C-alpha cells in the first residue's frame, strides 16, 4: 500500500489514534503533516517518525478555529500538494439531554462536525484537480446511542451522514470520502482510566464480542487502506473497527 510521493494531513496527530495513523502513513512513504494544539507532544511524535525514517512536519493548530485550519490546509497544499486528509481531532463531551447545557452540546459539534466540514471544504478545493482521499474518524457512538454522551454521540452521527453526503458530491472529482468508526480503543486516555478502575476495564472488554479492546494501530491499518489506492473504488463507506460491538444485540441478562 505504498504512499510514496503523497502528502497527508492528520488532525489530532499528537496522541492515541492520530499518532498511530501518522506513524503508519509515514511508514508507507507518505509525507505526513501532523497538527494538534500541544507543540511538545507534536514534536515527540515527529521525532519518533523521523527516527523510523519517515518524513514529517508539525503544525500547532486548533481545528476549532476553522478559518485558521482552512488556511493551514491551503498552505500545506501550496508547498507540497495534498493527497490525504484524516480528520481525527475530536471533542469528547459528557452530559445527558436532560442535564447538558446547550453550550456544552454545541462544543462537540464545533470540533467534531464544524472543523471537519471546514477541513473537507478546504481539502476539496486543493484536491479537485488530481483527486485524493478524505478519511473522517467517527465513533461507535455515532452508530449506537450512548446515554450520558448526548453531544458527542449526536455529533459523531452527524459526521457519518456528512461523510456520505460529501462522498456523493466529490465522486466525480476522484475524491473519495470515507469514515472509520472505532469502538473501545486502548489509547493513553483509556489506559489511564483502566489503571484507575481495573474492573471497569475488564467489564468493557467482556462486553465486546472479540473479548478485548482494540489498539490504535488497528485503526491506523484501516485508515491506511482507505488512504491508499487499494481502496480506489470505495467511497461513502463507514468501516467499524470495534471487535464486532456495533453488530451486537444488547440483551439484559439480569
UniProtKB/TrEMBL annotation:
CDD domains: SDR_c
NCBIfam families: PRK07231.1
MF (Gene Ontology): oxidoreductase activity
A UniProt-annotated Pfam family: adh_short_C2
Organism: PS1 clade bacterium
Domain of life: Bacteria
PANTHER family listed in its UniProt record: DEHYDROGENASES, SHORT CHAIN, OXIDOREDUCTASE UCPA
Protein's name in the database: SDR family NAD(P)-dependent oxidoreductase
UniProt family annotation: Belongs to the short-chain dehydrogenases/reductases (SDR) family.
Annotated Ketoreductase domain residues: 6-183
Keyword annotations from UniProtKB, A to Z: Oxidoreductase
InterPro entries per the UniProt record, alphabetical: KR_dom (IPR057326), NAD(P)-bd_dom_sf (IPR036291), Sc_DH/Rdtase_CS (IPR020904), SDR_fam (IPR002347)
Amino acid at each position: 500500500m505504498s504512499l510514496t510521493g503523497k502528502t497527508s494531513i492528520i488532525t489530532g496527530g499528537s496522541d492515541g489514534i492520530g499518532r498511530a495513523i501518522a506513524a503508519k502513513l509515514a511508514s508507507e512513504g507518505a509525507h505526513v503533516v501532523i497538527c494538534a494544539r500541544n507543540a511538545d507532544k507534536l514534536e515527540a511524535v515527529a521525532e519518533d517518525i523521523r527516527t523510523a525514517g519517515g518524513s514529517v512536519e508539525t503544525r500547532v493548530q486548533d481545528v476549532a478555529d476553522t478559518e485558521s485550519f482552512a488556511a493551514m490546509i491551503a498552505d500545506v497544499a501550496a508547498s507540497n500538494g495534498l493527497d490525504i486528509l484524516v480528520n481525527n481531532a475530536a471533542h469528547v463531551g459528557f452530559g445527558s439531554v436532560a442535564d447538558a447545557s446547550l453550550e456544552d452540546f454545541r462544543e462537540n459539534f464545533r470540533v467534531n462536525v464544524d472543523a471537519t466540514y471546514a477541513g473537507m471544504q478546504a481539502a476539496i478545493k486543493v484536491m479537485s484537480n488530481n483527486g485524493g482521499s478524505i478519511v473522517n474518524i467517527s465513533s461507535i457512538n455515532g452508530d449506537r446511542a450512548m446515554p450520558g454522551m448526548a453531544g458527542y454521540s449526536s455529533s459523531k452521527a452527524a459526521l457519518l451522514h456528512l461523510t456520505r453526503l460529501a462522498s456523493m458530491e466529490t465522486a466525480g472529482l476522484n475524491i473519495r470520502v470515507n469514515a472509520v468508526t472505532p469502538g473501545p480503543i486502548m489509547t493513553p486516555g483509556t489506559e489511564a482510566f483502566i489503571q484507575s478502575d481495573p474492573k471497569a476495564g475488564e467489564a468493557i472488554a467482556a462486553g465486546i464480542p472479540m473479548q478485548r479492546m482494540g489498539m490504535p494501530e488497528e485503526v491506523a491499518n484501516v485508515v491506511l487502506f482507505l488512504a491508499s489506492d487499494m481502496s480506489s473504488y470505495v467511497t461513502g463507506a463507514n468501516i467499524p473497527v470495534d471487535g464486532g460491538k456495533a453488530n451486537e444485540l444488547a440483551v439484559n441478562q439480569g
